[in-house]
Give the backbone structure.
Amino acid sequence: MSTPSVAQNMQKPGSAKPAVTFVCVHNAGRSQMAAGFLRELSAGSVVVYSGGTKPAEHLNPLAVEAMAEIGIDIADQATHELSADMLRESDAVVTMGCGDDCPYFPGKRYEDWALEDPAGKDLQTVRRIRDDIRARVEELLGSLTR
């Protein structure tokens, strides 16, 4: 079930930690996998948000399964509607297929990742998407921590 926002629960601390928001349409696959990778790979050195422009009710079970296969548990995550607070708090915003529905905040770093939507795909395809997301998150993390 979609909730209004997680930004109030995940405010960027008054530290030098960078913050990233991952945005896709349903917040059920791509953005959740990317957020899971960034949380795991950054070991808490990055504040992570994720939201959707039209959030689904539940995470894609194959996205959850594909992440669990590599030891990252996103099963406890919920889909969230993208909020202005998330974007305001972020240093970087990564969009994934939301097109014109993705809001723009001047002064933020934006990246648009052209990724296949895992919705309705088989597990093998979701694994390929997961691995592509991991490589992109690793590159993003490297640029944030330089």
